[in-house]
Amino acid sequence: MSQKVTLDDIVFENRNKEYGAYYLRKNYSKYLTKATLIGSAIFVAVLGGALAFNKITAANAEKEIMVDLSATDLQEEQPEEEIEIPEDVPPPPLEEPPPEVAQEKFLPPEPKKDEEVKIEEPPPPAEKLETAVISNKTVEGAEAKDVFIPPPPPKEVAVVKVEEPKEEQVFVMVEQQPEYPGGEKAMYAFLGKNINYPAAATRANISGRVTVQFVVEKDGSIGTVKVLKGIGFGCDEEAVRVIKSMPKWSPGKQNGRAVRVYYTIPVVFQLSE
Question: What family does the database annotate (predicted)?
């Protein structure tokens, strides 16, 4: 009788069957059946436990809780006590009217047109006004205690000092720098055309650069001018004079509004050979 040849025998023919792969393929169906049975048993056990737990919970929920309310524990409502209102209650005594306050007649005269004012009745003395109220007729009565007395005039007058407005801030750098009309080239052309070489500097053969700083105001005019570095012999004063004679600039701007800005330029003095 010939031995039954399986697919595994054909696949592993002329191969090492002692290797684990051959053993696993040969017993695969056995292990699959065993795993299926074990998994089914676990599933049935879990399902049965869940059903049993639900039945126990439902049975406990159906039990009624009996509360014994004894009528002896309840307190009887007590009737409200009646308040006796006495009959013949005498009315409260009437208060006496306050005494009439003393008054002094004092009517200011009413002037008429084209007539002189005549005071027919003089005003009452100050002693009577201290204990009486001013009225349009004189009435005898008790002395008035709360008579208005005007306050005395103030002894000292407070002097308020008004501070002078502070000078507006001058910026060093802004979003839009001030600009000479026509640009920087036109500015240096203006300086070269308008500078007069000082005679003292010419005699002393002085040449050099004067550094000048000035303020371009919000309207473009030239404000404060000062020399940061000079060379003397009248050159510093001449540089300041020419800067002050400049036409109005386009003002500098910060956040879209015109502001005061510092601007620094060198003014060169050079003798021609």
Answer: Belongs to the TonB family.
